[in-house]
Structure formats: C-alpha cells, structure tokens
Specification:
Layout (H helix, E strand, L loop, with lengths): L16 H12 L7 H15 L6 E5 L5 H8 L3 E6 L2 H14 L3 E5 L12 E7 L8 H10 L1 E11 L5 H12 L16 H8 L3 E14 L3 H11 L1 H13 L1 H16 L2 E2 L2 E13 L1
Parallel strand pairs: 1-2, 1-4, 2-3, 4-5
Antiparallel strand pairs: 5-8, 6-8, 7-8
The chain binds S-adenosylmethionine.
C-alpha cells in the first residue's frame, strides 16, 4: 500500500537565522515543478549509474517532484522521498499515481533526517542536498541513514560551468550569506566532494553528464528561471523591491553568462555525478 507520510514542520517566522534560511528555500522552490521536464532525463542518468536492484531500500533526498525516486521505483526498489517543499511533494504524489508505483513521501530537512541509522541500501540526491546550508551536517545525515556497504550517489553543478557560474553571479547580487552557510556549487568540485566525504566512503568515483535545455532565446531562458528556480525567484523578488536598476544589470549579466553555453536553441548544462560506497 502506498504510504503518504508528512512530518509537520514549523512554518511560523523564526528568530533562528538558519530556520529563516530554510523557510525562504521552501518558499522559493514552491514553483519548481515545471522544471521536472529538465531533471527527468538526468534522473535516469543518476539512477542508471547507482544501479539499484529490485527490493533495495532507496532514499531520494531533496526529491522535489520525485523524478529520481520514481525512476528507482520503476526498477522495483523500495523507495522513500524527502523534501522541504510541500508543493513539490504534492506533485510527487501525483507523479506516483500516474506512474503506478508505491513510494513513501516525507516533508523534512536533509540536515535532520527522520530515519534510523543504516535504514537504506542507497541514498541518492539530484541537485538537491547541495542546497542545505551546512554541507557537513547534510552529508553526515545522508551517511548516517545509509547502511555499511551502501551506495551514495548525487548530482551537482560544477562552479566553472553554466549553473555553477549562475550561482556565483546570484551570490554577488544577494545579501552576504549567514556565517557558516556555504554556496551550493562547491559540491560540483571533485576536490571538495573528496574532502567532505573523507574516509567515510571508499571507491569514490566521478562522472560527467549533460542536461540540454531548450530555449528560444537567452531572454526566454532567463524568464523561465525567474519563474521556477528558487534562488533566482528570491533574488528577483528582493531586487524588484529594493533596486530595479541593479536587477536590470543582473539580468544582462545572467544572459551574458548563459550565452557561453547557448547554441542552436539549447543551453548546455554539464554536471558532475559523484558515487561512493559507505565504509
Ligand atoms: C533543484 S530542486 C531538485 C529537485 C529534484 N531532486 C529534481 O532533480 O528534480 C532542489 C530541491 O531541494 C529541496 N531542498 C532545498 N533545501 C532542502 C533541505 N534542507 N532539505 C530537503 N530538501 C531541500 C527543494 O525543496 C527542491 O525540491
């Protein structure tokens, strides 16, 4: 039977800056569902490399609308998906019904996973756990719920390529981050991944894949991202209210950055896939 479990999180404004950061993330990502058409082929790339077998327990962390979770469930894995954003989990449930698979969904935070130690054979995250503000906390939780010998696999954006450069650009237009909050694109650097995973894993290996995003113009690509990508939605919201001229400069810089990766009406977004075995 399909289980639809929800762990209630406190939605009221908080004095804790980290809680406010996560509340802003939750709000920003609420409009991400249309981008699942871009992350669906990437989900197949991640799942193919991680290679879950039927009956294995798989956790998809920061699952969004469930593209990785559902791809793994179609192979017969017993899958759980967890995400911060209820609107995306609603779409994930709809996707589950359409695909005719069984998945357990949780609203929650990757920095505080509501699962027992060693509960999963495989922990996956596609462009997801990278948004947790404290990488060391997120990865410790992901490794805690993974059994010894289990597989960890995740996709992330390299700092020097399209989306990584857009993260860095957005960072220059946003207020300075809270102390200890680390930008997501560092997860796209194999040296940083190696250091963060340390001796908790063996057989760490890296691979590259490409997401090809249709766009009728650079402006179309920017307009789509302004409506769907959490951090960009928040940036545009804030500059619209405080500094419209700066927003225009951001928009021109955005288009100039993406231009380096735009050809034949396609934006080429290369990314990193990291795979390892827990020891
Ligand atoms: C770029 S989307 C990726 C979604 C999905 N994995 C995919 O590939 O389509 C980033 C996701 O991270 C989730 N997220 C951000 N911070 C999180 C946190 N601290 N804990 C759990 N999920 C988080 C967002 O709600 C959003 O669904």
């Amino acid at each position: 039977m399909m289980q639809n479990q929800t762990i209630k999180s406190d939605q009221s404004p908080s004095a804790d800056p980290l809680a406010r950061f996560k509340a802003a993330q939750r709000e920003g990502w609420a409009h991400f569902a249309p981008l699942e058409s871009m992350t669906t082929p990437a989900a197949a790339e991640l799942v193919r490399r991680a290679n879950p077998s039927a009956g294995q327990r798989v956790l998809d962390v920061a699952c969004g609308t469930g593209v990785v979770a559902i791809t793994a469930a179609r192979l017969g894995a017993r899958v759980t998906g967890l995400d911060l954003t209820p609107e995306l989990l609603a779409r994930a449930r709809e996707n589950t019904r359409i695909a005719g698979v069984e998945i357990e969904w949780h609203q929650g935070d990757v920095e505080q996973l509501p699962f027992a130690d060693g509960a999963y054979d495989m922990v996956l995250s596609q462009f997801g756990h990278i948004f947790a503000p404290r990488p060391e906390v997120a990865i410790a939780e992901m490794l805690r719920v993974l059994k010894l010998g289990g597989t960890l696999a995740f996709s992330s954006w390299p700092p020097e390529l399209c989306i990584g450069r857009l993260f860095a650009l957005s960072g220059r237009y946003l207020p300075p981050p809270l102390p200890g909050v680390v930008p997501p694109h560092l997860w796209g650097d194999p040296n940083v991944v190696r250091e963060r995973l340390g001796n908790a894993v063996k057989d760490l290996r890296f691979d590259r894949a490409t997401m090809r995003v249709s766009a009728l113009s650079l402006q179309h690509n920017r307009a789509m991202m302004e409506k769907t990508a959490g951090p960009i939605i928040k940036l545009v919201e804030s500059l619209t209210a405080t500094d419209p001229a700066k927003l225009e400069t951001f928009r021109r810089e955005y288009e100039a950055t993406v231009a380096d990766f735009f050809q034949d009406n396609v934006v080429r977004q290369d990314y990193l896939i990291s795979l390892a075995t827990k020891v």
